[in-house]
Amino acid sequence: MSILVTGGTGFLGKRLVEMLLEKNEDIIIFARKEDPELVRKKVKFVLGDIRNKDDLEKGFSNAKIVYHLAASIDSDDPNLHDINVNGTRNVVELCKRNNVKRLIFMSSSATLGSVKFATEASPYAPKSKYGQTKVESEKIVMNSGVPYTIIRAPILMGNNDIWLKILKAAKKRFPIIGSGENKFHNAYVDDVADLLVLVKDNKKAENEIFHIATKDVPTYEETYRMMAEELGTQMPKIHIPAFAMRLLSSIATFLLGSKTPLTLRKDNIGRLITDRTFSIEKAKAILNFVPKYDTRTALKEMIDYFKEKDML
Predict the structure, then answer these.
(1) Reduced to 3 states, what is the DSSP secondary structure of residue 72?
(2) Rounded CA gap, 277 and 274, in Å?
(3) DSSP alpha helices (H): ranges in 36-113?
(4) Quick check: 295 pLDDT over 90?
(5) Given this model, what pLDDT does residue 246 score?
(6) What are the pLDDT digits (tens) for 76-88?
(7) Which end of the chain is least crowded, N or C, by CB within 10 Å?
(8) Which residues lie below 8 Å from residue 199, measured CB to CB, with a gap of 6+?
(9) Is 110 left (phi over 0), alpha (psi -120 to 50) or beta?
């Protein structure tokens, strides 16, 4: 029996595959291109586009567990809906055709929008196009008749290019946007991958949704302060009003389009200035799952990694 992972070369997907390999699982990755490191580990690749069902079907040979992680996270991507929603529909239809035992779908807390404390039963309230596609995708999965588990995570922390850019901006004392008093959850990539592995063979996880996030819920300013302390730099004293930042974002997007810097993108600004906290009690109660990371531990691990690689 094989495990199919769509998006297995991505930030989270690769970490998940590495953890599954440690358990001697037989892995098939469906992706646009191969990852040389995973090829060396004898992982089988099927290449193609998630929007092309014929491409995708080649990955379902003997696959009884499917992790669907492939997605676009850019709300400005013209192919966002096609990749996220129609791609998920393709996965679901092939799961049904091939009698897959469990579909594990990686969703997002963006389905719930701005919330001060959300449970898995909280109503959908997406604030971004990306969040809307995840709502549609969740509904496709839940109404499919295929046994499923849905994992919702907020922003993933870890050693990727996005966080490297964020840390470099903090090192340069990029101003705080708004009051900084809003609270928001993040999740460390290893915790998310751990939960994805755990639910695979757990009957208690069947046809359920689970939230995953860090153990603590700091404010935006507290998160920035931790970052500055771990970087060995000073906290910025300047706060830029949210409306001014949105205006700058609109101008930058008009002038630069897809080349707009990460710190000036509308969705990213929205994520920083809104309350976004989630209960992780369901995973604790049903699965006995407790995340290992709090925000400072995650930040320290990332910063130490980038410093060791002489990237920061």
Answers:
(1) coil
(2) 10
(3) 36-40, 53-57, 80-81, 87-97
(4) yes
(5) 82
(6) 889 999 999 999 9
(7) N
(8) 104, 149, 151, 205, 210, 287
(9) alpha
* Distance separating alpha carbons of residues 271 and 186, to the nearest angstrom: 11
Task: State yes or no: is 130 an active-site residue.
Answer: yes
Six token digits for residue 103 = 């579909």
> How does residue 61 score in pLDDT terms, banded at 50, 70 and 90?
confident
**Residue that is written with structure tokens 């094989």 in the block:** 2
Token look-up 């060791």 returns 308
Q: What share of the chain is helix, strand, coil (3-state, %, to 5)?
A: 45, 20, 35
- Cβ atoms of 249 and 269 within 8 Å: the answer is yes
Sequence letter at residue 152: R
263: tokens are: 């710190």
What local confidence, expressed as pLDDT, does residue 133 receive?
Answer: 98
Give the end-to-end CA distance of the chain in Å, rounded to a whole number: 43
Please answer whether residues 128 and 72 qualify as being in contact, where contact means their C-beta atoms are separated by less than 8 angstroms.
Answer: no
* Token pair for 62: 């003997």
| Contact partners, residue 22, CB within 8 Å, separation at least 6 | none
Q: Which of 89, 78, 66, 47 is nearest to 2 (CA)?
A: 66
Residue with tokens 């029996």: 1
User: Which of 130, 220, 224, 293 is flagged as catalytic?
Assistant: 130
Q: Which residues contact 72 (CB under 8 A, 6 or more apart)?
A: 79, 80, 83, 84, 130
Distance of CA 253 to the CA centre of its chain: 24
Helix (H) or strand (E) segment spanning residue 6: strand 2-6
**Cβ contact 105:66 at 8 Å:** no
